[in-house]
Structure prediction request, 231 residues.
Amino acid sequence: MSDETQLNRQAILEGQITQLAESKSSTIRLMPDDVRARAIAETLSQAPSLDEVWIYAYGSLLWNPAIHVADTIKCTVDGYHRSFCFWTVLGRGCEENPGLMMGLEPGGSSNGLAYRIDAQVLDTEMDILFRREMMSYVYQPTWVEARLAEQPDKSIKVLAFVVDPEHERFCGGLDEATLIRHIATAAGPFGRNCDYLFQLMENLNELGFTDEAMAELEMKVKQYQEAQANS
Prediction:
């Protein structure tokens, strides 16, 4: 791998992401294979139908799903909003300067994409998805209602990765100055923390979505970086 690790399907399947996480095992609580397999089975047992499994993309899954997608629908999930709410020393941060990563927290709403996984490849794709999202227990896989953008009166059940507020790396409610400083300055094997935010906003804009909180955060991060560059 290069100095900047690529989080993609091949890296997940070849175990490169797991190896990277294992190198940080002293600071990251990793999910064993057998626990992940049980988590997948339990999650799918709660699915409305194994022929219609939809995944909610609200962060990096928007531009880098890494799974094979059979269908895509724009949607809105009420009751959960995007938040940079847990520390990372693995992806876009380091132990000296941790980054902040995104999860869904209760309250408000969010918009994104629903991805349908073909039933014939469901086991493989769910394994890849959980190797990526459930590596360190930080999320709780949760089935939620998603309103379809083109048919607001129609909804589907989607699997969303909601942050676990009891996780040791959860930091919801972080003061704004600390939030901005870490996103603006942190970097790790997957690149700069700020680029995650910038990529998110670029994709939301392309999809015709708005997220006022994230747009304001992007503006303030760029202002912080400009001020630091000129100081």
